[in-house]
Amino acid sequence: MRKYIISIALCCCSLTSCIKDEAPNKECDIESVWIEGEEYQQYFYRTNEMRKESIGSIDTDIIFSVRSLISLSKDIPLNFKITEGATIEPANGSKQDFTKGPVTYTVTAEDGQWKRTYNVIFREAALPASKYSFENVETRRERTMFYQYNEIHYFYENASDGKEDYCWATGNPGTALLMNDAKPESFPTYSVAKGKEGKGVCLNTQSAGAMGEAFNKPIAAGSLFLGKFVTEYVMADPLKATQFGVPNGREPVRITGWYKYKPGEKFTDMHMKEIPNRVDEASIYAVFYRNTDDAGNTYVLDGHSVEDLDKILDNPLVYKVARVKSLPATDTWTQWEMFFEGKDAPDDIVNAMGCNLALVFSSSKSGAQFEGAIGSTLYIDEVEVSYEK
């Protein structure tokens, strides 16, 4: 974990009566990685893809999307920013051959005891999947801020190169900051054995406990989305932690899927005050948007960007949005569909993988504002995206 997150735990020990020398750093994270040199620009659709920032403390794969692996240089140097005092092997700036598959980097903390391994992968940019059945699930055992462990489900798709593509993210890593020795079913989002067909996904709104209430973040809604969750933003700016969208080289028209839903009994606000007569709602929506701004900088939708979906088309980088208008409570698998509305994206931008598709599910529609009903439960499965030819 980053120092910022660990400091929350350390503040609980601030009443100690003696001062000791600072212990060697236990952190062993890659914070950013980049490629320098104009000679390497030819391998990427956009130069901003040559740099990866805000690498989460739970990430294990770092993926660069390139035009082709066949023409890719076999000597590419990667530059890393790692946590203070740590070391990395292979050496920072050394040239590696990524055409044969992932290259594993090991970061060793300053104390010499803690280590983390990362797989750096160069992958050809490919058309996205058109159907998601959520059959592929990995259970990861992850260290907490108190150096204990939780088990969390991660959902992935099979990429065109046969590797796992962890394009799906959840808010579970944020919830895990407040939990220890928890199993996957204890988190707001987890895999279930019985979906519409095969496995499915359960999203449920939970209490965030006493610490959550202390920070006016009393609930944790179940969430699943195409994109990335950056744990380091959880306490300071939780809406920034959810970064929506993955590169997409086709323009979507319609999305369908299956669901079951039951709202919780008592709807509360961010202060855990009950709001009478308000019933919780689930949420399913998608946004198709440009992933670079006019200056060529990387652009990503986060929780702030989607707070008001009614006005999201006012964003000049957003092309289309789709929403399921209503998800009535049902205990049987029921089909839903939504159509994209807005303006067409330029063909040259789409073909150059210059757009992202964000697809978002939540068990509480206002969960990002920490409003909802504990116990609200949404099941999803068999999601399909239809594209224009």
Descriptive terms for the model:
389 residues, mainly beta, 5 helices
Overall mean confidence score, pLDDT: 88
How many alpha or pi helices? 5
Give helix % range: under 10%
Percent of sequence in beta strands: 35-45%
Overall strand count: 32
Low-confidence stretches: 1-20
By secondary-structure content and strand pairing, the structural class works out as mainly beta
Q: What is the C-alpha radius of gyration, as a whole number of Å?
A: 21 Å
Outline type: globular
Could you explain the architecture of this structure?
Mean pLDDT is 88; it is low at 1-20. The strands form nine sheets. Strands 15, 20, 21, 22, 25, 26, 27, 29 and 30 form a nine-stranded antiparallel β-sheet that branches. Strands 10, 16, 17, 23, 28 and 32 form a six-stranded antiparallel β-sheet that branches. A hairpin with a 5-residue loop joins strand 11 (137-143) and strand 12. It is built from five helices and 32 strands. By secondary structure, it is mainly beta. Helix content is 7%, strand content 39%.
Summarize the structure.
This protein has 389 residues and is mainly beta.
Task: Set down the secondary structure blueprint.
Layout: H1 3-10, E1 30-34, E2 51-52, E3 61-66, E4 76-77, E5 79-82, E6 87-89, E7 95-96, E8 103-108, E9 115-124, E10 131-132, E11 137-143, E12 149-155, E13 157-158, E14 164-165, E15 168-169, H2 172-176, E16 189-192, E17 200-204, E18 206-207, H3 209-214, E19 219-220, E20 223-229, H4 238-241, E21 242-244, E22 246-248, E23 252-262, E24 267-268, E25 283-290, E26 301-302, E27 318-323, E28 330-339, E29 341-342, H5 347-351, E30 355-362, E31 372-373, E32 377-387
Parallel strand pairs: 3-9
Antiparallel strand pairs: 1-2, 1-5, 4-7, 6-8, 8-9, 10-32, 11-12, 13-14, 15-20, 16-17, 17-32, 18-19, 20-21, 20-30, 21-26, 22-30, 23-28, 23-32, 24-31, 25-27, 25-30, 27-29
